[in-house]
Amino acid sequence: MTLKSKILVIYTGGTIGMIMNPETHALEPFPFKNIYTHLPMLHLVDAEVSFKEMLPLIDSSDTTPQFWVRLATLIYDNYNDYDGFVVLHGTDTMAYTASALCFLLENLSKPVILTGSQLPLGVIRTDGRENILNSIEIAAAKKEGKPRVPEVCIYFENSLFRGNRVYKDNAEHFNAFHSANYPKLAKVGVHIRYNDTFIRQTSEQSLILHTKLDENIAILKLYPGISKQAMRSVFNTEGLRAVILETFGSGNAPSNPEFISILEEAVQKGIVIVNVTQCKGGGTVEIGRYGASVLLKKIGIVSGHDITTEAAVAKLMYFLGEGLSNEEVKHYMGVSLRGEITV
Ligand code: ASP
């Protein structure tokens, strides 16, 4: 007799756990102890499922780095008692949370699957039902006695993604997420087809929880005509330690000397600047492909390769929180720690 996998479902808020208040007709979170009323087929799942609410339940727009640390700590504290974790989360910032968890949980060797829905569970056409049931099945799946997907993932509308590779790109369709630079880890149809070659291998070392994130970073998105004042106001932010510079195409930026000198001053002042392209697909920063990016390298801006902005936020907060020096941060932005970049 094989033992059933034990799965912990952590409910953090978002659309998925809502029902319509019959009097006000507004969507409100329902107490998760009533989950079996809304999802009776949960009784049939081939796993032992437990639930925990992480209070207060939030709209994921209210997510903070402190929330990421609380969630990572909750998983860490329950790590030895479960075979896998499913996190129910609002879709708006799910890609940021997935990225943060992958850095906070070093040597993860069990699945942590984030999911949510576009329509609440209490609505008849909800996509939440399939998303929860498939996420539990994937979190419970084993191959040769080992978890099938031992990494932080997002499951949404028939697709399993590496969590630090996705972004939300649709607020209407059920397939709300996309991973332009990394293949899906599984596709769900009649069967669940795992894409084994792209799934990370289980770490043999024990799980390490990191709890320090430094929020002193900013994102500066370039656009034609960006003013010196706008740029200076970002770089003059008190305590600022790093900036994600969202550039054009394969990592290009204006070549005018005034623009370059503002960036150069910031680098000399000790601010780490990471070049991340605004292009989602095929979007890797290739410094030197065009002259417009060569100058950026020359003044000490580092390439983010094909990282998403969401993962770059988490990676920088993690490095700075861990107390890495500027030179170390610059070096490790070019190293794939959790499969977040292709190098
Ligand atoms: N605003 C909601 C949230 O991100 C949307 C959702 O759950 O999909 O919490």
Q: What fraction of the residues are assigned to beta strands by DSSP?
A: 15-25%
Portion of residues within helices = 25-40%
Number of helices: 9
Strand segment count:
20
Ligands, ions, cofactors? aspartic acid
Shape descriptor: globular
- Mean model confidence by pLDDT: 93
Q: Segments where pLDDT lies below 50 for 5+ residues?
A: none
What structural category arises from helix and sheet content?
A: alpha/beta
Largest sheet: 8 strands, mixed
Give me the Rg, rounded. 21 Å
Give the oligomeric state of the chains in this entry, treating copies of one chain as homo and distinct chains as hetero: single chain
**Lateral strand order in the biggest sheet:** 4-1-5-7-10-11-14-15
Q: What is the element string, with H for helices and E for strands?
A: EEEHEHEHEEHEEEEEEEEEEHEHEHEHH
Q: Report the end-to-end length measured between terminal Cα atoms.
A: 44 Å
Outline the structure in words.
The chain is of the alpha/beta class and 343 residues long. It is built from nine helices and 20 strands. The protein has an eight-stranded mixed β-sheet with strand order 4-1-5-7-10-11-14-15, sandwiched between helices. A four-stranded parallel β-sheet has the order 17-18-19-20, sandwiched between helices. A hairpin with a 2-residue loop joins strand 10 and strand 11. The relative contact order is 0.12. The model has no long low-confidence stretch (mean pLDDT 93). The structure holds aspartic acid. The site of aspartic acid (ASP) has 10 residues, from loops.
